[in-house]
C-alpha cells in the first residue's frame, strides 16, 4: 500500500501513546483556562447586549483557541520532538501563498452562491453594516480568526488525524470528524436548528470534507485556507441569528434557515472541488492513501 507522507509525519520524533494523552490533556486545560474571559463576556452580553462591544466579546471568546494553539505548538515541538509545521505538510515547508489562494477560491465560491441565494430570496436578507463595530471586527478577523481556525485544523486534521491515521487511516478520518462535530455541539445555533442530530450530521460532514481534502492533497494547506475563509465570511460578510460567535456583518439573514445553509455549503464545496485543480493544484486520486 502506498504510504501517505502527510499521515506518516506523525512517526517523526516521539509518538508514544502516553505523549498523545499528555498533550491532549494539556491542550484541553489551555482551552478551558483560555475560555474563562470569553465565558464571562458571553454571560455579560446575554444579560445586557449593550454592556460590551461585539468585537470585544469575540476577542475574549477566541482567547481559548489562541492559548490552545500555543500549547499544542509547544507540545509538538518539545514533547513529540518534531517540527510543528509537519502538522501542515510532511516536510515542514508550507506554501503560504497556496493557503491564501485556497481561502480566496472558497470566498469567491461562497459569494457566488450567496448572490444566487439573494436573487432567489431577497426578503431573507437585510443590510446591517455598522462601521463603528465593523472596523474593529475587521481587525479581530485579521489577527485572531486565523489563530482560531489554524488551531482547529492543526489539532483535528493535523495532530489527531496524523496520530490515529498512522495506525488506521479511516479510523483517523472518522474519529477526528466525529470529535470535530461533537466539539461544536455546544454552539448557540444548535438550539435554533432544533435538532442536535441534524446539526451533528452537518458538522461531522464538514469535518469529513476537511479530513479527506487533507489526506488527498497530503497537506493541510487547502483546509487551512477554506476554514479561514469560511469563518471570515460568516464573521464579516453574511451573518445569521443565533450565531455562536457575535459579530458585526455587512449583511444579516432574517432567520437561520438550516436546510438552506447546508445546501449552500454543499454547493460551495462542489464548486471549490471543481475549480481546485486549476486554481490551487489539487490532484484528486482514486482513493486516499494511508
From TrEMBL:
GO terms for molecular function: endopeptidase activity; metallopeptidase activity. Residues 137-232 form the CAAX prenyl protease 2/Lysostaphin resistance protein A-like domain. InterPro entries: CAAX_protease, Rce1/LyrA-like_dom. Keywords: Hydrolase, Membrane, Metalloprotease, Protease, Transmembrane, Transmembrane helix. The chain crosses the membrane at residues 17-40, 52-76, 103-122, 134-155, 167-186, 192-213, 220-238, 258-275. Pfam families: Rce1-like (PF02517). The keyword Protease applies. GO terms for biological process: CAAX-box protein maturation; proteolysis. The keyword Transmembrane helix applies. This is CPBP family intramembrane metalloprotease. It comes from Runella aurantiaca.
